[in-house]
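Structure ticket #2291
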Amino acid sequence: MEPLRIGILGAARIADEGIVDPARALGHRVVAVAARDRSRAEAFARSRGVENVHDTYTELIEDPEVDVVYNALVNSLHARWNIAALRAGKQVLSEKPFASNAAEAAAVRDVARESTGLIVEGFHYLHHPVNQRLGELVTSGELGGIEKVEIELSTPGPPEEDPRWSLELSGGATMDLGCYVLHAARQVGRWIGGEPSVVSAEAVLKEQDVDAAVRAELAFPNGATGSLRWDMNAGRRVMTWTVTGSAGSATSPAFAVPHQDNRLLVSRDGQPSEEMLGDATSYTYQLAALAETLRAGAPFVIDVDDSVANAELIDAVYRAAELPMRGMRPSQPRRALGPDGPQPRRSRGWA
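Resolution: structure written out below.
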């Protein structure tokens, strides 16, 4: 079949892993890129063999040579340009998070329902065989009745000037890391027949209203509990996803980037075992799945309704942590800063 012709919105750091390398591995073409700074887009194109550079995002979206738009812009621009690409009839792979909040996500969903194009959110981790096997263990009953979900995603902090720290650009740890953690928790809910709800959430702040780390507790309809943590300013990387049932447990030790550790650690009746699965990156599996959906109509693992539901859970965490949702004015004025700057909100005993 003809290769997909992909255009990239934003010459972002994620684009290499997210689309350029997978396209090269699978024989698809990256035909165009557009960035706010044309010189940056030109340098990006030269170093990666991208065929064309556009002056504006609109030009790229309207390019008849582009089949698929990969949206790698900052969070605050995801919804706007997802909608623009859908209205142009393009297929869209949007970097996560899909939108700044649930209202924006619903607006994208409404346009998607009327569009000839398909939009999917880039939760690549779910396409990797390690995490798919975790889902099989849950749904098959091999772990017994599911009782507990524990997920942590912690990474060293990005530079101070990184847009992931910007409230105005819809940044914060929940938007960058928490969206993965909440999505993984929701997938367990999908496997066992019920969406989780937020019981509590507490945040440590990087600066005024910008979360650096969050701890959240969830409840599932079947009585299972979820203990979640994400930290975008941690001393080391931790990416564990553990599901425990009455008959055993399973852990994906690097669930967000499972190609970095493609083991699944399983324990049944006190006996540990290890499975090694997958020989490609999760981004490559994701693009392969998208191509199969576009070419052959194969079902994609998640849809636009899943993206709205994830945005709703993100909003719920921000409300529970008494922080403003992204992309919206806070209901209360921002607190005046003391001489030592904003004070972190900490749960008792949380270091």
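Closing remark: The two ends are 54 Å apart (CA to CA).
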